[in-house]
Design a protein that fits this description.
The protein is α/β, with parallel strands linked by helices. The chain has two domains: 99 residues; 117 residues, no CATH class. It has six helices and four strands. It has a four-stranded mixed sheet, with no helix packed on it. β1 and β2 form a beta hairpin.
Length: 230
């Protein structure tokens, strides 16, 4: 599992270094934010590679201890017992170090993004970031947005936010912010597995949908000449 988590972090880092830097002006901020995680991933790789041979040594020492006891060579058995306990202690210490280098699986920020060109603003909404754990595990039952993502959107859309000087706001979302009504969406999901993808629709998360639309409408009112486009 530690290897999977580490591979996911490093793969995401590779994605950022190749693609995001082509267009994302705050890619340096992303690097800074993820630097501790990358360091943890590399340390996990290093520590994890030491575990298999160490486990083998523990097993060999244990087998030798048991064999010596069967042969009633208690002095030799004591030597192997001491070695076995020392190796076990080292193994446990390595495992504790690995756990210490695995960050909390609770997601931080996602791939949400803002950009401003003169009087035009762009808000990109990440609907998937909170539904994939930092180790790559899918988490479809998580809410669309987590607390830190909400803080990001609220900061961007409230007074003195990044969009305070724009009058045209383009909002990019993987799925329409306004789609089907809640009851119909949930009825389709319950009706057939063929509609499973509808669980990711905004209408299946009406509280989040209303909260985001409220932020957008309040921003529109605050900026008198604003035109909201999607």
């Amino acid at each position: 599992m530690h290897v999977i988590r580490s591979m996911f972090r490093l793969a995401r880092r590779g994605y950022h270094e190749y693609q995001r830097q082509l267009w994302d002006l705050n890619v340096d901020d992303i690097y800074a934010r993820e630097a501790p995680y990358v360091a943890m991933a590399l340390r996990c790789f290093e520590l994890s590679s030491e575990l298999p041979p160490l486990r083998a040594q523990v097993q060999l020492a244990q087998d030798a201890m048991i064999s010596a006891r069967k042969q009633t060579d208690f002095q030799l058995a004591k030597v192997y017992e001491t070695k076995w306990e020392s190796l076990k202690k080292t193994l446990i210490e390595k495992q504790v170090q690995i756990e210490a280098n695995v960050p909390d699986l609770q997601n931080d920020r996602g791939e949400e993004y803002t950009q401003v060109w003169e009087n035009i603003g762009l808000l990109m909404i990440d609907m998937r970031g909170n539904q994939v754990f930092v180790d790559g595990t899918q988490a479809p039952d998580n809410p669309i947005l987590n607390a830190k993502q909400w803080q990001f959107y609220e900061h961007a859309l409230t007074k003195n936010g990044v969009f305070d000087t724009v009058n045209v706001l383009v909002i990019a979302s993987e799925l329409p912010l306004i789609d089907q009504n809640e009851s119909k969406t949930r009825d389709w999901i319950a009706r057939s597995a063929a509609f499973e993808s509808l669980r990711y629709w905004w209408s299946n998360s009406p509280d989040a949908q209303l909260r985001l639309l409220t932020l957008i409408m309040e921003w529109k009112v605050a900026v008198s000449t604003t035109c909201v486009e999607r």
